[in-house]
User: Which sequence fits this backbone?
């Protein structure tokens, strides 16, 4: 049996698998947990990142405001389900105005490495690329240079250094919102300069035929990194965003050990199928409780609201076969 390598999280938001459920993952019965109008200015609150923080929870939230500017906001929660989200977007600290010049910011991820919370998001800078910042308290955020050149999306850090370097997955693409995209791996000695770019995996077929992108921070197990990732199918009615899982080698994470043929979760609940962008399930964060093997995944639903779903390390390993 695979074991999660990580902390215990006794207050992990959790619901048992419903009786009769034949899936490897199940939705929270109270979904969506964050409504589109969670704060006065929000049009929608969806692809968002959540981490354990000081015995409770903190997060960086994607809120599109009512001018439809895509932006990121911080928030806190006692239970990981009910959230107090700041009414104003995150203001970044930086010595250099060029770095913090704001076009748009979306799809944040938060990753704790060696006591510091690293924040990455899709940052508008002459096209989308990977914005980079860090915080200790989710109040003051220090922005650094973008990790990569545009065009790039879905920058997802690993929660520990790999072979002595920071490590990140990302999804480079061309100058448009193109119908392709593969996941790559990069390393950095300092979280500023990134290199050693390795290909991890490409789109394939079915639910992941059009493009793929890393989702939550990878989950370390004694058998490899569990990567939850989204995949896109182009239907005659537009894109459909589902998510699946892969297992990456622990010390060479660009090597894929296992990968799902089927999706883990596809948009089927009404709040995943109906919203500003129909048929989107887009995971950006996962919480784990190492002793029990429980995994709680936060995901954006129809680019409108935020949902929560549950699985375990045993379920994911059974799913991967
Ligand atoms: C992707 C990103 C996501 C969004 C998805 C579906 O390219 O923009 O933020 O959830 O499209 O619209």
Assistant:
């Amino acid at each position: 049996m695979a074991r999660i390598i990580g902390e215990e999280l006794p207050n992990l938001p959790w619901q048992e698998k419903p009786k009769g459920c034949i899936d490897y993952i199940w939705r929270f019965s109270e979904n969506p947990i964050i409504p589109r109008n969670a704060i006065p200015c929000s049009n929608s609150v969806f692809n968002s990142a959540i981490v354990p923080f000081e015995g409770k929870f903190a997060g960086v939230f994607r809120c599109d405001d009512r001018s439809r500017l895509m932006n990121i906001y911080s928030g806190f929660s006692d239970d990981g389900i009910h959230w107090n989200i700041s009414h104003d977007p995150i203001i970044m600290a930086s010595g250099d105005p060029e770095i913090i010049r704001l076009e748009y910011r979306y799809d944040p991820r938060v990753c704790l490495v060696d006591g510091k919370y690293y924040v990455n998001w899709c940052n508008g800078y002459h096209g989308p690329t990977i914005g980079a910042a860090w915080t200790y308290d989710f109040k003051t955020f220090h922005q650094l240079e973008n990790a990569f050149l545009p065009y790039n999306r879905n920058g997802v850090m690993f929660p520990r250094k790999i072979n002595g370097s920071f490590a990140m997955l990302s999804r480079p693409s061309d100058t448009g919102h193109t119908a392709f995209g593969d996941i790559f791996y990069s390393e950095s000695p300092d979280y500023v300069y990134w290199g050693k770019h390795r290909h991890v995996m490409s789109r394939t077929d079915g639910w992941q035929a059009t493009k793929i992108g890393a989702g939550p921070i990878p989950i370390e197990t004694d058998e490899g990194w569990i990567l939850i990732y989204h995949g896109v199918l182009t239907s005659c009615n537009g894109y459909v965003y589902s998510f699946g899982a892969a297992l990456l080698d622990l010390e060479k994470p660009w090597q894929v050990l296992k990968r799902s043929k089927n999706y883990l979760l596809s948009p089927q609940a009404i709040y995943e199928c109906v919203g500003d962008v129909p048929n989107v399930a887009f995971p950006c964060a996962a919480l784990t409780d190492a002793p029990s093997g429980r995994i709680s995944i936060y995901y954006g639903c129809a680019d409108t609201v935020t949902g929560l779903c549950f699985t375990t390390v045993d379920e994911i390993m059974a799913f991967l076969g």
